[in-house]
Each structure stands twice: as structure tokens, then as C-alpha cells.
Write a structure and sequence with these properties.
Layout: H1 2-12, E1 19-28, E2 34-39, E3 49-54, E4 60-67, E5 71-77, E6 80-86, E7 93-97, H2 101-104, E8 106-108, H3 112-124, E9 130-135, E10 138-143, H4 144-152, H5 155-175, H6 182-206, H7 213-223, H8 240-254, H9 265-275, H10 278-296, H11 300-312, H12 316-326, E11 342-345, E12 350-352, E13 361-366, H13 371-379, H14 381-390, E14 393-398, H15 403-413, E15 418-422, H16 425-432, E16 439-443, E17 449-450, H17 460-469
Parallel strand pairs: 1-7, 13-14, 14-15
Antiparallel strand pairs: 1-4, 2-3, 2-5, 5-6, 7-8, 9-10, 11-12, 11-15, 13-16, 16-17
Helix pairs in contact: 4-6, 5-6, 6-8, 8-9, 9-10, 10-11, 10-12, 14-17
């Protein structure tokens, strides 16, 4: 069955849960032939995919969009970005005049009503230049417009101004509720509400240098930040306005202490751990762990918190993201989950690391051109044979680019164990940082990295037997 699924995946090259739809763009008076589409193809993707297409001689183009859930896509033309909301069954046509894009922008086809409203909403409530607050690797986004108001208005005036705008946005959206799809309505309502809560906190960030504890408590009481907020709707965690609100909330809860102090990510992590609950709590713990490592390559936060995070985190996708970020640096850390991966065996069947959960797995990353790898197979032939008889899974993963080279090496050297070939070296490299081979990893019965005792003259067989008996 796995072999059949692999064949289907390779043939179609897309997720069975995704759907391909067509977006058409027609431009009057074009002054460029290129259009760029930017979006996350799948909701679990970490990075935005970018696709470039050209107008044809009739000044229009069609783009095949692959989506697995309702989402925003950005259509970029001549440095102007058009935000488009696309649902699974939409068939949109985007039309505008290049001489005045926003004023002439309109949509036709299924999904056009949502996007025509969005275009009118954006004209009434235009976007302003963004402003980023970077507090110990916690990036929070506001706007220059809000920052200016926060420093030129009193707290009372500022709150009144953002309340008025918030009410106008809600009123406009509710007036058109019956014409809009439920998905679009709820998504924009969430953006309006969580954007409003973030704007409250912008006042504190802009005035943090002058806020005393007494002043902080006084203004907090009148602003009522996040008083009636639902922190844990699962669908919100794909919404960047909501996740931006979460980061702002963690920084806000640190006040009135100095937000520009060095290494305040440690108390930030504690705030996420103690002040948040449910999915929001573990999302922010994951976010802070990854942000710190991404920008410093230091393990101090992970060394202090990762084991506890893995033990208590009920959301495996967050553990996987942290493991992927830290890569091989986590391999020697207690309770670090070994990232799962797929490879192909000699018969063409897909083999996953997770297939062997409940067993001790000895992974040998190697290549046909690697002399030390081949020497290892020869020198430890008897040891490997004994380990296999004990029940240790010997998973030999070749990183060869050519299947023929791999099969020739197997025929010549006959390594003991399950011999497999990587499907994607790039994906495997991201998970295990295979900068050189041979590379060996041991995974315990619980699916977490394990290590052998290193004291004295180590008895490899006895050390593996301890892992089996655990």
C-alpha cells in the first residue's frame, strides 16, 4: 500500500488534500508583463512560495493555484500588492487598470463578492507603513501611523481613536454579513478584533521608557487588554494578525520592566509558559525557542526548557517544528524527539522512521562514494549482525543522488540491515544536518534520540542491551 501511495504522490506531485483552481488576471494599459503570486501552498508550510507568470498578447494570464484551505494570496504587480482571499471552490478573475490599480480593482466569478468587499474595505481603511518592534528576538508588527498616534496622543485620546476605528470596521463588516462567505467573514472579523488588541499594546511599547509600575497598572485597567479574548481557537493559528497579537501580549505582560534588556527572552518564555494556556501557550513556547535559536544559534534556552516542553506539549506539530529548527544540535539532548522521515527500500516500498516506534533504531547515514562508510560496514560486520539478532533495527540510509550507484554499492558490500535510499536529501538535511557522512544516530523505543554510555571501555553490545531493556 505504501508503495502505491508513493507512486500516486510522485505522479501527481501534489497533496491529495489540496485542490487546484484557476486565478485569471486581466490588466488594462499594462506597463509590465510580469505578475508574481505569493502564498503558502499548504497550511503547514513554514515558508511562502513565489510564482512568476507573464501576461499574454491579450494582456491576461491564468495561474493554477494549489490550496488546501481558504487563504490569502498576494498578487504583486509593479511593486503593488493586491491581497486576495481564495476559498477552495472559488474561480476568480482579477481586473484592474495599471495606471490606477487600487481605484480600478475589481473581481468577477465565484469568490468575487468577498474580494470586492475586501477591496472597498482596504480603500476605506488603508494599510500604513509597517513598524517592527524587536524585543529579544520577539518580532511584533504595528504601523507607523499607530506609533505616531501613541506618541502624540494621551492614553485617553489614543484609546478613543482606535476604538472609533475598530467600531467603524466592525459596523462595515456586519452590514455586508449576508453577502459574504462565513469563512471570509470570520477571518476578517478575527483580524479586526486582534488587530485592535495589538493596537492597544502599541501605546505601551511606544511609551515604555516613561511608564512607571503605577502608570502601567492605571492605563492597563482602562485599556482592558485582551480582557474578552479567546486565545485558543485552532483556526486562528494560521492567521498572522492573531499570532502577532500573541507575541505582543507576551511582551506586554513583561512590562513595566525594560523591554530592551539583554536576553529577556528567558522571562518571555516563562511568561508564555505561565500566563497562557492551551494551544496558545505551546505555540508561543515553540515560537520563542525557534526564534532565539534562529538568530543566535545558541542552545541555552533549549538546554533549560526543551525536555520539559517535549514532555508536556500535547501538539506534536510544535515539537516537530522545534526539532526541525535545532536539527542535529538536539541529538544529544535528553527527550529530544527524532524527526520522522521517509525513505525507499530496495523493493521500492516507502519506509518511515516512525514505522519502528517501540524498537531501538540505529541509523547509519552513508553514501556509495564514502570510503569511511564502506569501511564501517566491513569493520563492524559481526557487531552489526549481533545487534540485529538482538532486535536493534539497523536502518541504513544512503544519500546517493543516483539510484544505480546505491544499488551497485549494495550488491558489492551487502550492508547488514534495512537498506534504503533518501527521497529528498534537502528535506533530510534540514532535519538531521547531514553535513558529512558517515553520520550515526540512535533512536530509543520512545522515538527520542538516545546515546550510549561513554564511561570507561564501552561494551557496545551491553550498552544497546540497556536501551532495549528500558
Amino acid at each position: 500500500m505504501k508503495n502505491l501511495l508513493l507512486a500516486i504522490f510522485l505522479f501527481f506531485g501534489t497533496s491529495i488534500f489540496a485542490k487546484q483552481v484557476i486565478v485569471t488576471v486581466k490588466i488594462d494599459n499594462p506597463n509590465s508583463r510580469e505578475i508574481v503570486f505569493k502564498y503558502k501552498k499548504h497550511k503547514t508550510d513554514e515558508f511562502i512560495s513565489e510564482f512568476r507568470v507573464n501576461l499574454n498578447a491579450e494582456n491576461y494570464t491564468k495561474f493554477f493555484l494549489e490550496i488546501d484551505a481558504p487563504k490569502y494570496i498576494d498578487v504583486v504587480y509593479n511593486a503593488t500588492t493586491i491581497h486576495v482571499y481564495h476559498e477552495m471552490n472559488d474561480q476568480l478573475t482579477i481586473l484592474f487598470n495599471a495606471d490606477n490599480i487600487f481605484q480600478t480593482l475589481r473581481f468577477e466569478g465565484k469568490g468575487g463578492t468577498n474580494n470586492n468587499f475586501l477591496a472597498n474595505y482596504s480603500r476605506q481603511f488603508p494599510s500604513y507603513a509597517p513598524k517592527m518592534y524587536d524585543y529579544a528576538y520577539l518580532k511584533i508588527y504595528g504601523t507607523e501611523n499607530m506609533a505616531r498616534k501613541a506618541t502624540t496622543h494621551t492614553d485617553v485620546q489614543y484609546l478613543r481613536a482606535i476604538k472609533n476605528t475598530h467600531q467603524e470596521q466592525i459596523t462595515l463588516l456586519k452590514q455586508h454579513r449576508n453577502k459574504l462567505s462565513q469563512s471570509f467573514y470570520l477571518n476578517l472579523m478575527a483580524e479586526i478584533n486582534y488587530g485592535f488588541e495589538t493596537n492597544k499594546m502599541i501605546w505601551f511599547f511606544e511609551n515604555s521608557a516613561m511608564i512607571t509600575p503605577e502608570r502601567y497598572n492605571q492605563v492597563s485597567k482602562s485599556f482592558q487588554v485582551a480582557k474578552n479574548v479567546d486565545f485558543n481557537k485552532k483556526e486562528l493559528f494560521q492567521n498572522k494578525v492573531y499570532t502577532n497579537f500573541l507575541r505582543a501580549y507576551v511582551a506586554y505582560k513583561y512590562l513595566p520592566q525594560d523591554l530592551n534588556m539583554f536576553k529577556i527572552y528567558l522571562p518571555f518564555y516563562k511568561i508564555a509558559k505561565t500566563k497562557l494556556k492551551g494551544r496558545a501557550k505551546y505555540y508561543m513556547m515553540m515560537d520563542i525557542l525557534n526564534s532565539v535559536y534562529d538568530r543566535t544559534m545558541k542552545m541555552d534556552l533549549a538546554n533549560a526548557e526543551y525536555s520539559d516542553f517535549v514532555k508536556n506539549n500535547p501538539f506534536p506539530e510544535y515539537t516537530e517544528k522545534v526539532s526541525k529548527m535545532y536539527g542535529r544540535d538536539l541529538s544529544g539532548m535528553a527527550n529530544a524527539v527524532a524527526p520522522d522521515f521517509d525513505v525507499v527500500d530496495e523493493k521500492g516500498n516507502v519506509v518511515s522512521l516512525s514505522d519502528f516506534k517501540g524498537k531501538v533504531v540505529y541509523i547509519d547515514f552513508w553514501a556509495s562514494w564514502c570510503k569511511p562508510c564502506i569501511a564501517g560496514f566491513k569493520d563492524y560486520h559481526e557487531t552489526r549482525k549481533q545487534l540485529q539478532s538482538m532486535g536493534v533495527v539497523l536502518l541504513n540510509v544512503s544519500i546517493d543522488k543516483k539510484e544505480t550507484a546505491w544499488r551497485t554499492a549494495l550488491s558489492k558490500y551487502t550492508p547488514i540491515g534495512i537498506n534504503t535510499l533518501t527521497l529528498s536529501f534537502e528535506k533530510l538535511y534540514q532535519k538531521y544536518d547531514i553535513s558529512s557522512v558517515p553520520l550515526y544516530q540512535i533512536v530509543g523505543k520512545d522515538g527520542k534520540f538516545a546515546s550510549l554510555e561513554t564511561q570507561g571501555n564501552r561494551d557496545i553490545i551491553a550498552a544497546f542491551q540497556k536501551l532495549i531493556n528500558m
